[in-house]
Design a protein that fits this description.
This protein is mostly helical and about 120 residues long. The protein has a domain at about 50-105. It is about 90% helix and about 0% strand. α3 runs antiparallel to α4 (about 105-120). The longest helix is centred in the middle third of the chain and has 54 residues, at about 50-105.
């Protein structure tokens, strides 16, 4: 009997195990994982105990400060653009007021002026 078992092991079982060893270990590994994962205890800790609430408050304050700074910069930029726009419009009005007496007396200059105004309006 012992000799037959040795013969079977060496001729049939050992080559099969060498070739398909992973299929034997896969179910064993899965069972071990399931047994191990079932024993874990979950510990619930309040956020105050880990300092998460303080960290969140700090991040919120930092975010609010960045938003306020960006809003202030935007207001300053808008104010600067408005001032430049008013200055440009004032300059245009003054230039047009200076040209009124000349344009009233010379029809050719009036025509040229109106052509230039049309060209300026078409430019992007």
């Amino acid at each position: 009997m012992l000799t037959a078992l040795k013969l079977w092991w060496s001729s049939t079982a050992l080559p099969w195990l060498k070739k398909y060893w992973m299929w034997l270990l896969l179910p064993i590994g899965m069972v071990a994982y399931l047994l191990r994962s079932g024993r874990r205890e979950v510990q619930v800790v309040a956020p105050e105990a880990t300092g998460a609430a303080a960290k969140q408050l700090e991040e919120t304050e930092r975010y609010v400060a960045r938003v306020e700074k960006a809003a202030q910069e935007r207001r300053q930029q808008q104010q600067r653009l408005d001032e430049e726009h008013v200055e440009d419009v004032t300059n245009l009005v003054e230039d047009a007021a200076e040209q009124v007496p000349v344009l009233q007396q010379d029809p050719k200059k009036t025509t040229d002026f109106l052509k230039n105004v049309g060209k300026n309006q078409r430019k992007p």
